[in-house]
Structures
1.
Amino acid sequence: MHHSDKDPIIAVATAAGRGGIGILRLSFGKALEAQIVGRLFGENCTLKARYAHLLPFLGTDGGVLDRAIVLLFPAPHSYTGESVLEIQAHGGPVLLSLIMRTCLEKCRDLGLRMAEPGEFTRRAFMNGRMDLTQAEAVADLIDAVSESAVQAAGRSLSGEFSNAVRDVDGNITELRAFIEATLDFPEEDIDVIGSEKVRTRLVQAETGIRAILENARQGQVLREGVTVAIVGSPNVGKSSLLNALAQEEVAIVTDIPGTTRDRIEHWVSLNGVPVKMVDTAGIRTTDDVVESKGIERTLVEIRKADVVLHLKDASGLIRDDTEVLDKVLKEVRHGVPLITVNNKVDLCESAASGGEIAISAKQGVGLSELKARLLEVVGMAATTDGVFMARERHLQCLKTAAEHVSRALLLIDCDPMPELVAEELRLASRALGEILGETTTEDILGMIFSKFCIGK
Ligand code: GDP
Ligand code: ZN
């Protein structure tokens, strides 16, 4: 069946499962307002705008299913920009799905259907209630796994990210208009392109984009988190370290070498940055089939990690099987930081040498230093105040925009052709517009909204 983005839609907006209340939401064109309200609450029923009405909700057989608080937000002053009807019922999953089916049945001839994931927010975007970055922030706010992530998503939702992008874009567009204007008056022969004013403003634009990019990069880390693979020989204390960082028992700690055969991962929050710590099987030469499978899996983890933490035994009791370990550490991707950490310093007199971090997983020594180093290598050492939530898509657009502005700067140095400079600026603007959803293709929009939960 072909779904139109004009169909009236309905979904349960609250989480699945039991709850005190459960909310159903309908969105539809203003023209359908009286009909839908009539079908659901009786032909004589009219709802005052944005006013809480306590009404019985009747089943198809006329019996009362529930008494609900009903609110009507007439277009355009609603979440979607269409008319929105909210039914706040009791939060039982069976009740809610029964109410939904009843609504669908009563309004079948009006074309009411279940909403697709993200469809309410998609309509909000289509109707200009929010730009694309804000729409994405809605999903990110719901999915946020740390308080810093919540704050960053909140900043994007309130438009801080969009406004920063719009500001730079505005400057670029103004500059382009200025340059294009000179194209129409070549006889005046003033060196507009080579002027200090143009150069200064281009440099400002580039600096501006790079500043947004840095905030966005940190936002992306808050959104997606960082994966740290802990590798090392058996019994150096990998599982103990994971437990110490997680501050709870998540991995099995034993004295028997090779115990951690399955991958064990746990999310910890370091300064609000979500970090997935992955405990891996110990690395050593082995004939044991299960254990060598574990090593293979460790290799897989290493290739996926954002940071690799090589844990060593500082006490000297456990020596690394350097041959195997070197082979494994060779698999660390280019550009992925490798941190060497000496564990069990409680067992030795002098701490480890030369810049390596010394800890005792057992006694909780040196952990804050280790956390600080982890945050440092992923570029999250500074406070995340002012960071806004962002995605890979945004970073790509920002990088593209920055490249075009850099190229414009290069162009004004060599035989300046105003047309070419203007073209670079046009491309920079297009990339920035894509962030806000002004020049975004249908495919990209479909991909973004399909990741939303139903009812949002
Ligand atoms: P893994 O095989 O690398 O995961 O090592 P485990 O975390 O299972 O630890 C192996 C043994 O080393 C256990 O007996 C731990 O109690 C011990 N151990 C771990 N960290 C420390 C530490 O910092 N100090 C001391 N003294 N013992 C530790
Ligand atoms: Zn272990």
Note: The pocket of zinc ion (ligand 2) is lined by residues 238-239, 259-260, 279 (CB under 6 Å).
2.
Amino acid sequence: MANYDVIVIGSGPGGYVCAIRCAQLGLKTAVVEGRDTLGGTCLNVGCIPSKALLHASHMLHEAEHNFAAMGLKGKAPSVDWKQMQSYKSDTIETNTKGIEFLFKKNKIDWLKGWGSIPAAGQVKVGDEVHSSKNIIIASGSVPSALPGIEVDQKIVVDSTGALELPKIPKKLVVIGAGVIGLELGSVYARLGAEVEVVEFLDVITPGMDAEVQRTFQKLLTKQGISFTLGAAVQGVEVKGNKAKVTYKSRKDDSETTIDADTVLVATGRKPFTDGLGLEALGVEMSDRGQIKTNANYATNVAGIYAIGDAIEGPMLAHKAEDEGMAVAEGLAGQHPHVNYNVIPGVIYTHPEVASVGETEESLKEQGRSYKAGKFSFMGNGRAKANFAADGFVKILADAQTDRILGAHIIGPMAGDLLHEICVAMEFGAAAEDLARTCHAHPTYSEAVREAALACGDGAIHA
Ligand code: FAD
Ligand code: NAI
């Protein structure tokens, strides 16, 4: 039993960042984590392992498709799946151990076990009850089930199972053309699986800029991934070590059944708050199972706060981190602010897809007049040299003020390129501010500048 200023429940990107910030600001802090390792979904079964597999499989793709053209001849590498898995596990371990190190460095106690809140100001872990002035729930999210489909993590898997398949399937059917489906679908397609994605809507990656959606689908199709859109999955039947996926066309109600060795269900995630005791405490929840909070991340129960995937907003690691820092700074008497208009979203396929702010569609809906400056990576020397000239940068700026309202990039290192636009947006910059900033040559970043130039008098290399 100990007394704390802050107990954080959950050590994902929301929880661990929050705890570090609390400790830095002089608050006596503990984190409750039920997993064997720190880092939450992101480090253990999300961002980090998926990026390791995306990296390894991209390297294979480069070797198979581009090495010979660059004069790098010889036997193409073959896949040692066991070794790739241990590379992935090592990557997870160095990251989760890194958080453990940061906890020690910042004198944060790790209370090992699953926590519950018997009353405001108390957190129970195992048989011990700890007291704390403030409790921050950062309990994250889990895959949401699809009615009638049982995930057995062998033949029918969710993202966690898909990260550790015993072997590369011959035929992988992915249900859902969202971020998880396309990232993990890409991994297995590059490793030799036949990948078919079945999506309920008529577009992939719903909510994204429509031109990016179309280009993205075209490029993934070129890489061998096939798409069935407008298809409502009815069920998955497992027989032996095979599965049959049945879907109904939303256009004409016709039913189709496809065979698969593995089925990845990637139809979204839902907040995880089981076992915390929130109902008994009277913590208000939304009908989507999210913990309701105010602008300071406070719930309706005094002294209890919530952040990250467990509350509303995009389920992204960096959104959770920003909220973690903000709630800590608020508790220390500061006046933090998270700008929800400038939260980047990145899909780490190849090419990458990155977006921030408004889309053309959302601006049209608002009736707001805007200009779109677009530049193709075909006009970027570095991208051409690196066989990475597919895609474009699009910057959306207010028609009158030239203020940047959004940006959408599909192309090499899109996730990294986006950030200069995010910074510009934070500063309320105009497209001309980016256009007048000298960009080093030859870099992919020049494509961002060219898109900004295209919002004005025109790009140079278009
Ligand atoms: P989580 O990371 O979910 O952490 C919550 C932690 O709380 C867990 O460790 C859980 O064990 C613990 N916990 C819960 N309840 C209790 C309790 N009662 N007691 C003790 N411990 C508890 N986002 C990105 O931004 N970029 C990406 O590239 C990306 N890739 C992803 C890939 C995959 C395959 C998946 C599944 C997700 C990915 N995400 C990505 C999403 C990202 O992982 C989440 O948005 C992020 O982890 C949310 O952080 P969080 O701190 O809110 O919760
Ligand atoms: P998602 O919400 O991105 O995509 C789910 C897709 O499944 C949607 O396109 C939806 O229309 C479709 N769908 C839903 N029901 C269906 C049905 N019955 N049949 C066919 N299709 C159906 O969810 P996903 O991919 O599971 O990811 C969950 C969360 O994890 C996302 O919110 C994302 O933010 C986060 N994540 C982020 C990553 C990143 O930032 N790079 C990577 C992976 C996950």
Note: The chain has a mean pLDDT of 97.
3.
Amino acid sequence: MRHLLDTKDLSREEAIRILDIAESMTDSTGKEIKKFPTLRGLTVANLFFEDSTRTRISFEAAAKRLSADVITFSAKGSSVSKGESLKDTAQTLEAIGADAIVIRHSSSGAAYRLAETDWIDAAIVNAGDGTHAHPTQALLDAFTLRRERAALKGEPSLGQGLDGARVVIVGDILHSRVARSNVWLLNTLGAEVTLVAPPTLMPHSVGDWPVRVTHDFDEALASEPDAVMMLRVQAERMHGAFFPSASEYSRRWGLTPARHASMKQGAIVMHPGPMNRGLEISSTAADAPNSRVLNQVSAGVAVRMAVLYLVLAGDSTDTQKA
Ligand code: CP
């Protein structure tokens, strides 16, 4: 695999391979992440033009677990404030020794721009670009779902997709790169996806996506999904035009204690983080025994190890873009 830019580019076999490699990065308890010498002598640069807690730190942890050196760049406090371009910034990181660049940027398409120009030779991993894609988040979500299903069935997860799983994704779909990457990956892996959002936060393009769409959260919950994935309301992308109001949003599209109580036995709560507690998700749901929010964070390290391994040390059959 040369780069990882979006889950839309992944075949089912490629996606399962990433998930299987991520499984092999954990020990037999499935929790502890092993340490490998695989990427010794290589350098991973985290190039973050937008804020991040989980993605940046877990990429850093993943690179270190593979024995790579890590350079972390944050646009805040850098020469970006003096007008330095994306091209010059990326070339500077490569000149310092970056073999892979993990990029988060507010512009949709920034990761593709780095991968498709001849500015640099480094492998590119998209850590979130605008409202477009967040492939490693979707992969860690699939990893979490796959583990859950395997545990319920008492079967190993290796080699498995998510055939027949029913996932409801709720919230600010309009601004969500997490939703977009999940829609493509979950579909590729055989899951059925329902999107729920206020009409103002559902993108017009949703008619072209392989999903069922509703504005009624209670109707979606009545279909007894295996997982309810809540999305963050991205107020920072709404430029002060938050609509509906927070109280209406919470009442109609929030995972309230009552809606949480109505979930079927064995169904799980997911959220990519950071959470707006009391808005899209109640603390009752976020902290419940069936919440997998922190499992998702843990899965992020193993999945990002698998991705860094594939783009920096994958075998010669991994020639495709992603
Ligand atoms: N889920 C996610 O991308 O979180 P961060 O913004 O903290 O990286």
Note: Residues 293-313 form the longest helix (21 residues).
